[in-house]
Amino acid sequence: MRIELGHRSFVCHAHALDFARNLFASCIVQRLELNWKTKLCLFSSIEIHLIPSCSLLNFPLIIGRMIRFILLQNRQGKTRLAKYYVPLEDSEKHKVEYEVHRLVVNRDPKFTNFVEFRTHKVIYRRYAGLFFSLCVDITDNELAYLECIHLFVEILDHFFSNVCELDLVFNFHKVYLILDEFILAGELQETSKKAIIERMGELEKLE
Amino acid sequence: MEQLKTIGRELAMGSQGGFGQSKEFLDLVKSIGETRSKAEEDRIVLHEIETLKRRITDPDIPKRKMKEYIIRLVYIEMLGHDASFGYIHAVKMTHDDSLLLKRTGYLAVTLFLNEDHDLIILIVNTIQKDLRSDNYLVVCAALNAVCRLINEETIPAVLPQVVELLGHSKEAVRKKAIMALHRFYQKSSSVSHLVPNFRKKLCDNDPGVMGATLCPLFDLITIDANSYKDLVVSFVTILKQVAERRLPKSYDYHQMPAPFIQIRLLKILALLGGGDKQASEKMYTVVSDIFRKCDSSSNIGNAVLYECICCVSSIYPNPKLLETAAEVISKFLKSGSHNLKYMGIDALGRLIKISPDIAEQHQLAVIDCLEDPDDTLKRKTFELLYKMTKSSNVEVIVDRMIDYMISINDSHYKTYIASRCVELAEQFAPSNHWFIQTMNKVFEYAGDLVNVKVAHNLMRLIAEGFGEEDDAADSQLRSSAVESYLRIIGEPKLPSLFLQVICWVLGEYGTADGKYSASYITGKLCDVAEAYSDDETVKAYAVTAFMKVYASEIAAGRKVDMLHECQSLVEELSASHSTDLQQRAYELQAVISLDKHAVENILPSDASCEDIEVDKNLLLLDNYVQQSLENGAQPYIPESEHSGLSNISNFRSQDQHEASIHGLRFEAYELPKPPVPPRIHAASLEPSTELVPVSEPSYSRDTHQVETAASISDMGSSELKLRLDGVQKKWGRPVYSSSSPSTSNSTTPNTVNGVTQVDGAVNVNSKTRSTRDSRKPQVEISPEKQKLAASLFGGSSQIDKRATSANHKVTKAGIHAPEKAQAPKAAVVSNQVTVEKTNHQPSPDLLDLGEPTVASTTPSVDPFKQLEGLLDPTQISVTANHGAVGTTESPDIIGLYGNASASGQSSSSEISLTTNRDDVNFTVGLVDATVSTAHAGTTLPTQFPKGLNPRDSLEKDALVRHMGVTPSSQNPNLFRDLLG
Predict the structure, then answer these.
(1) I need a labelling partner for B904 at 20 to 30 A (CA). Which of A147, A186, B38, B664 fits?
(2) This prediction's pTM
(3) How many CB pairs below 8 Å do chains A and B form together?
(4) Would B827 be classed as within a structural domain?
(5) Structural domain contains residue B966
(6) Model pLDDT, residue B285
């Protein structure tokens, strides 16, 4: 696996699963070595190009712990909401949505709510006919993200008073706004339900 | 009925389109929702795109309308179509003065554009202006866009303002400004001077801002923990306050005080306390407090507990905390929830590094997880097993891994687990025989996913044997290898790499023990070469194997009688397109015609491990060169001076290199052909140099190495000589217990891996295992599992195990009870909500009965199945839901019932439905009655705070009916409360 760090490239022998972990460490080294003035910077500007033979892994990723994307899909795989916190090509987005849906839709409800997805992990939760999926780093605290999904649904439930899929279908733009108050730049920015509902209330007043 | 219908209509009208959208848009959403195929959806969307394209360019559209168009664009994009024609309009909308439109504009651009889009430059100006706005909502909207859209070049344009906003009076703005700065910091190094701001904001009096500050701080500390050691006390204090519920109640989640902030703080503490005793000591109290306070019955409580374990396992170890952590882990593992088991396994993997013994008491739980049908859990468990592999349990673990490897199709994970198997087998192999068997399996099933290097290591192992002066054992090993290969060779579709190994071994040792005749072996090889006729490498290996077999025959003084099919194969190959194959074929023919003495010199038997001395300077040619020069030949011009000429002169030797690189890595004596004198095959040394680093745990660098190896052989003599010096020693297989004490590599596997046990340990363990097995009837747990546990976890004592197994059972039973108690409650709650809804329902449009066209077309998905919420997976809840649905839809019962019962049948005839109707109503009523009487007490309190709900849902229902979306349409889930 070859990793390109700007104009430099190095061979990384890590396997995908150890990959993020190892790379994280090596990036730190690289950065120190390259010093602050170089165009490269940890996290966002490091793009990894994998040799095509590892076709499963050719998912350009950004290093750092953050939420990569959030998907709301129904059982048929229709996307009800999709928010990406990493830049992805449109075609790539479709592939991601398709793959994630396939991964989660047929899982036994008794199974874990976590699935490996390429070099990441998808944490999903099903509410009625809707799947909420969150893509995070493999080393992150899965349960916390699972609850993060639940908190989001609680907020939606509060906002739409007894939310159902239909609310989300017709009000997807509001859901996006709520999401923007909840998660920003791939990080949980506000965990107080009250604060978010109040903010949304202020916005609603304008309508 | 008529009256109810009007009420519904009125309600719907009253809320003015309800969702604030025009009928047109709602129709679009609805029609998309009702499509049955992707093609149909695409058609509608394309049509919509056409409409929008036409309308959006209209210069005087009302702003409100424009906003809707933009939202429709977002919708189109969300469905996966290209809406780029409208991007510019979204950008324009951000310029609008009205906040509402501006918000929509910003929302759209953050969804449409990536940070490197050309249009960004048009937004930057607006963002700058908005960041200065008096209205904090405008600022917030702009900051949201900043986080997503500002790229490295545009950071300076907004940076000063964002920094200024850190002191804004509204906490929401401060928080977003922090996140924006965090993003800048990730993107560019130019903001590193602002890092102190993060420290300052940690003391913000709003917990939300403080919580947000932890994100950038976490990143900063990940990179350089040492500069933040001074903050340990602050973090500990904050964590303490959070745990003591000093934050506002609104941050509570499921009775836990600000759990997400706790988790973040624990992560930071884990980083800061890593390997730092002093810092860690400050944390012990607070962490143990949290351990105590956490509510282990909720998911979030367990999430915090898990984070505590992670923290404990990475800071300087504290025995008491480790003990608590181990207790929590055992709770996780004994839980019935897969999620918790998963977390438990993961946590165990973390803790095992510090206290390796803790796995023992959980052996049965681990085995349960290993046998679980859930792949995620299984893989996590393999991860754990990998971490706890020792020479005593390697056989069981690797066997398990291989079994799993065989069962999966995912080539990515297959490669992964194959490399893990190889790694473990190489490190801990108890015997060479086992190693060979294991490698055979890995090759057979993972095939070409295995690294080439593994094959070479295997060949070398067979060639070298134990590395001791124990020839009997060596030859026994070889003949067992030969035998196993002769057995496997007949199987269809073996991977190329494996065939190469097989050919090599058969060629080298096939006839060595005299059990098999040369013609038998060559016949087999011939079959291989023919069966895999498009694989040149395999053919090359096969031909070389012939050569070796015949050479040993000649050397033994027997007459070579070439099989007819071999002969024809060799003839065919001598006309091959591949020069490599051609050369091999001709070499074979040449070697066979030589006499015994010559053959012994060229191909000495069992000499694949012998060193070959290389005369790099070709001293023996000096005389010849001298003579030629005297005879008037041109002196040699070095390559650098005369590249064209040298190309030609080097041609031959290069060819040889290529040949040797191609396939013959081990045949050191491969090229002793004129005109190159026998001692000069530099190239043939290359494989041996390449194979040196045995102990290296992973292999993906090998392609690279092949290159270097190749280039080395081309390069000067001194370097090669150097490498060769090391070779002999390194070949002493660090991992497979070779005995020569002089080199560090030849120590026993156990010491290499830092474990002090010596080889004997294996025997000891197997002994204990057998004693345990004999006692197994005393314990109730399935003997197989126990056996597995014993072999996995080796050293635990009998008493220990019985204790844990007993525990295990007790808790299992204990867990079931509360689970069952909870289930009906959840079900009832969900039921109650819907029931209440219906009581007030104006039972809308009977006309809808005409609509259930969809009902019969519903795919095989059972709508009732769909209705099961995640929260209530038990049987009881399903029936409760049954009732609930029935009641909700009661005015619409035909449609629904048609949907439900006729989903299997193709057509829903009106008559059968009406007859069914009574039944349905009846059962619905029945379920309702029983459920509500039985649990009225429990559900009432839950219902009170949601007093408004019936009206809300009523309105929603009326509204959507008004729009023509009926509950009986394709997806009844549309109406299902997500929080059932």
Answers:
(1) B38
(2) 0.67
(3) 277
(4) no
(5) yes
(6) 94
